[in-house]
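RETRY 2/3 - previous attempt timed out on the joint model. Re-submitting the same 865-residue input unchanged.
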Amino acid sequence: MSDLITPADEAGVVAAIQAAIAAREPLSIEGHGSKRGLLRPVQAARGLTTRGLTGITLYKPTELVLSARAGTPLPEIEAALAERGQMLAPEPPDTRGIFGVAEPATLGGLVATNLSGPRRITVGSVRDHLLGIRFVNGKGEAVRSGGRVLKNVTGLDLCKLLAGSHGTLGVLTEVTMKVLPAAEASATLAVAVPDIAAGVKALSAGLTSPFGVTGAALRIDPHGATALLRLEDFRESVTYRGSRLREDLAPFGDVSLIPDSADLWRGIRDAEPLGAAAEDAIWRLSIRPSTAPALAAALQAAFGARLLFDWGGGLVWVAGPATEAAHCAVTAAAAAVRGSFTLFRAPAPMRAAVPVMPPEAPALAAIAARVQAALDPLGLFNPGRMRSSP
Amino acid sequence: MIPLPAPKPEILARRDTIVADLHTLLPADAVIHETIRMRPYETDGLSAYRQMPLAVVLPATTEQVAAVMRYCHEQGIRVVPRGAGTSLSGGALPLEDAVVIGLMRMNRILEIDFDDRLAVVEAGVTNLGITKAVEHEGFFYAPDPSSQLACMIGGNVNMNSGGAHCLKYGVTANNLLGLKLVTPTGDIVEVGGDHLDTAGYDWLGLMTGSEGMLGIVTEVTVRILRGPEGARAMLAAFKGTEIAGQAVDAIIGSGIIPVALEFMDKPCIHACEAFANAGYPLDAEAMLIIEVEGSVAEQDALLAKIKDICARFDPISLKVATSAEESIAIWKGRKGAFGAVGRISPDYLCMDGTIPTGELPFVLKRIGEMSVQYGLQVANVFHAGDGNLHPLIMFDANDPASFHKAEAFGGDILKLCVEVGGCLTGEHGVGVEKRDLMHVQFHPHELDQQRAIKTAFDPAWLLNPHKVFPLTEHA
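RETRY 2/3 succeeded.
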């Protein structure tokens, strides 16, 4: 993309979109482009980046709310929160390693992709913590939805619609998030389990305990697997619950306590234990946790898939050869358990050739086309990013 | 009074044919058309507004809902969905030319899976009914609107209902996995699923809180959660609303997120105490009920921390419950707040704005001034952690002037909420009640953007066309 428009403010975004409307010229929409390798390649001659829209515009720690312009780098936001002992609770993954890029994600890019990490299982996703947005639609209008308060049911919730829409419905210019206190202490229990089925059962036992597990991942080892369960709270609570949870988990295998596990969970968040080779494709599946063993068996039989589970078994990272055959095996396995998938990383020709997420039922697809036209009538934003043109 | 759109004369004229047609689509006992039997459906929790519908249908299956929706779509007949009719914003208010689709017969629990922490229920299952079905295993469904004994999950989805425990557990939107619904054109579709975060547009999120304008929800897959080991409350009373607000800030700022953090002002404390004899301090200007969860030792530790924080704000009294019974006593007054106000006033309007929590002292001061100006009493309860304010405006419904004043007072409070950076409604929804205030919060083109999305789902504006948006040529 040689031609990148870089507005400095929302008025600049409006002007750029009005120019694109006049020229009937589609735009690729991005922040720092750190997840450009996700989903389908966009077919647009010109790009629009929000990287010029930066800065935290409101931060009220006691009201648990932070607003920032969409192009603000995530590390800047996380640092400001950490200074006041707070965090973005959904623990968004840092995908720079997966995509081999240097620049960090932006807040707008995070919302547009709705990617959440391990703590999602307990606290909810990025979209669950999204309180308000400002965006520019495909008519060149600046639109607000939501606000800066924690409870708001006023009108249709366009925040939900824009979150995870990958820049196809509007260009985010400012985002307001609910933020939460970071825990004083954390600890992780590691359970050596014989196989994936036993591992998912151990995770489920933790998540159905009254001890508030905030991370539940399953790492596949050469001769078995390790279920990892995290506790986060005040120090005395973590100590107490750790000992109680340890008793509950004993039937599933040898349990060990990892007192300082921040690096471990950072790795799981970023899918490092998946061990994907540089040339591998990566898929990210969301499934009902109890279907994980059957799905894993199907994928291992099909192409010796490498796997990493999070969210109690409900999130599956899959690595394997970047071939259409492997992709078909993944989509079939996901469909067999009524799950969802995204093709997370693959060479551009493959991403352009295959469906990168499950198809929608015809009645829903018809509504989707009309909703898209309601926000971006000319189809200017990120054409082809989520699905191929009908 | 808020106007309703004019009925379509051609529909009213064909009423007998329409009723006969509905009888061909549904079992005989599922169609109600006699005036006396339709009476229970003419209003909801906003009982100042009444309107008899064209007919009422009570389908028992998704397929029956779809058959009625297809028919109404083909015939251009308006449709108003209804759950238990507990909406405080007129969400279930009918139209003279509309068929009401009542979901109360769809009340089966289809599946409970503790290991996967989900339940699949039909739209007419009550909110509390879900918790009752899973509590024997120590589980619960988290959102707990105060109407939870009666209100139905389908209505909760459509209004994105909250409750007193949202600060920790979130609102309805944060506790759903999937929906089965019937579109305005009569297609049955599923959105979300039995897993988290479906790829593609977030139809589940958009449908939640859409106030029955985008589709008829017939089945809901909810997350169920394992409850904590226990919970306990404390009470803290202060000399002023400002200082009580500072105590709230200090608690949140310390890194503690209590499971509930309720604020009551002096008129509310007095009304509740007279009603429930809960032992509330009558000399306090403001009172907090703070609840924490965990083992007994964890509760002790958290309550001690919170007590230390409150002690810095010159409290009148601090009372930590030492048992579950004492906790119940502390909650007793708050839970009876609406009934308590109902006892001192023949009628009241329950408002529902949200404000940035830091604005509470200013907002309460302004509400007090307006109360004098309008000559109507008001009592305030407030979900202090999340900024959701419930002023109860007392009036006499037998006096039309009193009702109009109460509506105007309520409108002024909501405008104030928006002015200080908040919103018109935190959990009750816009419905018809706040429809004509939407321009206070949104620019015209922003309302048009929302209307365009409604049109994408419902091109003919047949489904609940008189709610949420100020009336236009559509409705």
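The CA atoms of residues 110 and 254 of chain B lie 43 Å apart. Closing ticket.
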